[in-house]
Amino acid sequence: MKVLITGGAGYIGSVLTPTLLKRGYEVTVVDNFMFHQNSLADCCQYETFNVVRGDCRDESLMKDLVKDADVIIPLAALVGAPLCNRDKIATETTNRDAIQMLCRLASKEQRFLVPITNSGYGVGEKGKFCTEESPLRPISTYGVTKVEAEKAILERENSISFRLATVFGMSPRMRIDLLVNDFVYRAVTDRTVVVFEGHFKRNYIHIRDVVNVFLHGLDNFEAMKGKPYNVGLEDANLSKLELCAEIQKQIPNFVYMEAPIGEDPDKRDYIVSNARILSTGFEPQWPLSRGIKELIKGYTMIRNTIYSNV
User: Could you give the domains of the chain?
Assistant: First the structure.
């Protein structure tokens, strides 16, 4: 089976691509390598690996690549509020328009597995879990564009949408700016963090469980297609302060405090039910504690701010 991945050298793609190759898939990656990464260097050993340096918004390029794919996984996106706010036009054309174009270019028989985001829930109702039936009220440019992309995906029958929780964990194309990754990095390097609006809650998922859910979707596509699925840890609907407490269990001299004034520009605050994906037989393998332990080891090696999107 031939898989086309846009943004395949990014944070998630750098873990997903080698995993698919090891499982025997033929994988073509399109990436503009905007972060100058060499995260797929080890994949070059595979005869079944193809890589194209290009832009996922280039219709002539994508038209030629799409025609040979059995499965399309559009990972390419500008991710995170700071990066999206820096270039709104690039965010809209990459996160939304490029996926709408792929839907137009692909045949009905070609399968799509698409990462969206559960940040589309925006600010949830206090104490009420967001399900796939909950209203989508994105409050950031990133959230808006991903919700619009999901609409295009679900309008075609042969697609699965994964509404990912906030991802954490080590990757060859590392991102330190993601919340869990950021707080563990500060705990390891600074031993302290000041938290703004520490009561804001969010759901979390390890990057390898993100890869596992894509594999699960490939294996169970016919039964799962046509629906969105929240993908997160059921026991990790945590506030920022609760997250810090989990980190402190493994780094006892980590000190955290909530700022009495000031606010976080990221206003997302919601808890999520992942019951639908669990009902399909998917089981996450990476609890938060295991991911924190992994990050501590990783940050013994990494001490550089190039590992973020801004």
Answer: 2-238+247-301 (3.40.50.720)
